Amino acid sequence: MQITTLPTPSHEEVSRVSDDTTGLVGFIAIHSTQLGPAAGGLRMKPYASEEAALTDALRLSHGMTFKNAAAGLPLGGGKAVIMGDPLVLKSEALLAGFAGAIAALKGRYWTAEDMGMSPADMTVIARGTEFVAGLPDGPFASGDPSPVTARGIFNAVRCTARHRFGSGDLTGRKVAVQGLGHVGWYLAEMLHGAGAALIVADIDPARCDQAAKAFGAAIAPVDRILQVEADILAPCAIGGILNAETIPALRVQAVAGGANNQLATPADGDALHRRGILYAPDYVANAGGIINVATEILKIRDRERFVTDKLAEAEATLDAILTQAATRGLAPHKVADDIVLSRMQQRPAA
Ligand code: NAD
User: Fold this and answer.
1) Is the CB of residue 187 below 6 angstroms from any atom belonging to ligand 1?
2) What domains can be seen in the chain, in order of their start residue?
3) pTM
4) Is the CB–ligand 1 distance for residue 241 below 6 Å?
5) Are strands 174-178 and 109-110 parallel, antiparallel or unpaired?
6) Given its phi and psi angles, is residue 132 left (phi above 0), alpha (psi -120 to 50 degrees) or beta?
7) Going by CA atoms, what residue is nearest to atom 31 of ligand 1?
8) Which atom of ligand 1 lies nearest, measured to the CA of 258?
9) Is 325 within 8 Å of 165 (Cβ atoms)?
10) Phi, psi of 306 (to 5 degrees)
11) Which residue's CA is minimally distant from atom 20 of ligand 1?
12) Model pLDDT for residues 140-177, shown as the tens digit of each residue
C-alpha cells in the first residue's frame, strides 16, 4: 500500500492512498482539527477521475468542519473517498488496506459510514483501526443515525416556522417533503404527528403510497414537488436542488430539510433571500446524524441525554442564525458560516 501526502493549502492534511493488488485508490482529507479530531464518513463511488474524487473529499471535509462546529461538537472536519463501484471493487482486502491508512493518521481522522458503505464494512475497517464509528454493535455503537437526524430537522422546521410565520405550531401547515427514505420518512411521521398537512414525492412510488396511507399525504410527481404550493419545503433526497432553475419556481415561504448541500452554489442562498424564502442552513438543520455518530466517537454513556441536549443546542444555534439574519438583513447561509468561523476563532488551534 502506498500513502502519499498531497500539499493542499486549504486543508491541514490530505493523503492519497493506493494499493495495486486490490485496486484501491482513495483520498483522506483532513480539513481542520482545530475543534477536535476530524470526523466525517467514508464514501465509495465510481468517480470519473482522481481529480473528481479528490475534489469531492476536499469539499465534503470542509463541509464537515462547518457541520461539526455548528453542532457544538468537539470534532473537526474530515472525509474519505474510495474510487470505484462498491458492488464491483469493494473487498475485505481493499477495506483492510484503507483501514491501515486511517490508522496511520493516529486518531487525527475518524471515519464512519457514508454512501457506498455499510455497518458491516465498518466492522471490517475496525479490524485495522480503532478510529471508526458507525459499527453495528459494541458498547458505544450508535446505530442508524436517521431517526436522530429527523428529530433535528423537525426542530429546524418548527424553528423556521416560528421565524417565518410567528408560530412554531405546525397544525395545518402545508409541508412538502422531497424524498421518503430513511430521513424523510421519519420526518414525515413527526410532521404528521404535529398536525402538518403533507405533500410528498419520491422516485419510489411505493414509498409515496405508504405515506398517503400512513399520514394522509398528498402525492406530487417527482418533477413537480419543487413547484407545489406549500408553507415549507423539506428537501430530504439529494443535494443541489436549490439552484438557478428551481428557485424562481418555488411556491413556498421557507425551506428546512435534511439533504446535504441543498444550495447548488452560495449565490443560490442569496437568491432565496431575495425572494423572501427563509432558508434553514442544511448543515445546521441536519446535524442530528453527526451528533448521533459523535456519541460513538466520544464514547458517551448516556446517549439519549447527549443527543437531546445537542439537538436543543442545534435548534438554539438555528434560532440565533435566523434572528441575526432578520436583524442584519442577511441571508441565513451567510450568517451560519460567520457563526462557525467566529466559533473557530474563539478556539484557536493548539
Ligand atoms: P435515503 O437514500 O435513505 O433516501 C433518499 C430518498 O430520496 C429515497 O427514498 C429516494 O428514492 C428518494 N429520492 C432520490 N432522488 C429523488 C428525487 N429526485 N425526488 C424525490 N425523491 C428522490 O437517504 P437518507 O439517509 O434518507 O438521506 C437523505 C438526505 O439526507 C441525503 O442528502 C443525505 O446526505 C442527507 N443526510 C442524511 C443523514 C442520515 O442520518 N441518514 C444525515 C445527514 C444528512
Assistant:
1) no
2) 2-66+74-126 (3.40.50.10860), 146-287+315-342 (3.40.50.720)
3) 0.93
4) no
5) unpaired
6) beta
7) 259
8) 30
9) no
10) -60, -45
11) 202
12) 999 889 999 999 999 999 999 999 999 999 999 999 99
Q: Note whether 151 and 314 are within 8 A (CB).
A: no
Specify which residues 113 forms β-bridges with: 42
> What is the rounded CA–CA span in Å between residue 169 and residue 313?
20
Closest Cα to residue 254, out of 269, 238, 239, 234?
234
Could you list the beta-strand ranges (E) of the chain: 2-5, 13-19, 24-32, 38-39, 42-45, 76-83, 109-110, 174-178, 197-201, 218-219, 232-235, 254-255, 278-279
DSSP code at position 196: P
Task: Give me the amino acid identity at 202.
Answer: D
Which SS3 state, helix, strand or coil, does residue 340 take? helix
- SS3 (DSSP) at 80: strand
Residue nearest to atom 2 of ligand 1 (CA): 181
Amino acid at residue number 169? D
Tell me, in angstroms, the distance from the centre of ligand 1 to residue 235's CA: 9
Question: What cell was used for 296?
Answer: 460513538
The reply to whether ligand 1 has any atom less than 6 angstroms from the CB of 204 is: yes
Selection from 183, 182, 212 nearest residue 200 by Cα: 212
The grid cell for 275 is 425572494
Closest atom of ligand 1 relative to the 201 alpha carbon: 20
**Rounded CA gap, 102 and 294, in Å?**
18
Could you tell me the end-to-end alpha-carbon distance of the chain, in angstroms, rounded to an integer? 31
Give the gyration radius of the chain's Cα atoms. 20
Q: How remote is the CA of residue 131 from the centroid of ligand 1, in Å?
A: 26
Going by the DSSP 8-state scheme, the letter that residue 113 receives in this structure is B
Query: Does the pLDDT at position 112 exceed 60?
Result: yes
| Chain-centroid distance, C-alpha 144 | 14
> Nearest 5°: CA angle at 8, between 5 and 14?
40
Q: Pairing relation of β-strands 232-235 and 2-5? A: unpaired
| CB 57 near ligand 1, within 6 Å | no
pLDDT band at 265 (very low <50, low <70, confident <90, very high): very high
To which H or E segment does residue 283 belong?
helix 282-285
